[in-house]
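Session log. Operator J.P. requested a structure for one protein chain; no other inputs attached. Running the standard single-chain path with token output.
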Amino acid sequence: MATTYAFPGDLIAAQQELIQVRADLTALYKRLPYSVEPMEGWQRPEGYWLTTSRVYPDSPGWSEQEVAALREKERDLTGAILTHAFWSEVPGPERLDARSHALEHEDREGQEAA
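Structure written below.
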């Protein structure tokens, strides 16, 4: 039988927020142009890596400031989760199991809300 843990609300909330920040960061990366620096469009020659050519449009570039806030928030949340006082209440050998159950708890919560 699996051990159940009484995860504090602030720890679960931080985990939920971290999941959202990572989803936002992934979505932002997908929207950004391929080049950080402004760059003229170019075409990969046929037969170079692949058998078909590929055209890359002009890239206006993008600023690190566009992702810096999300990266900083991700770091802060990760630190808060990893150093949360709750983990000191869980015996050392059980911590890995408890952290795994925290993620499972998050999955169940998300499924119940859906």
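Operator note: The radius of gyration is 21 Å.
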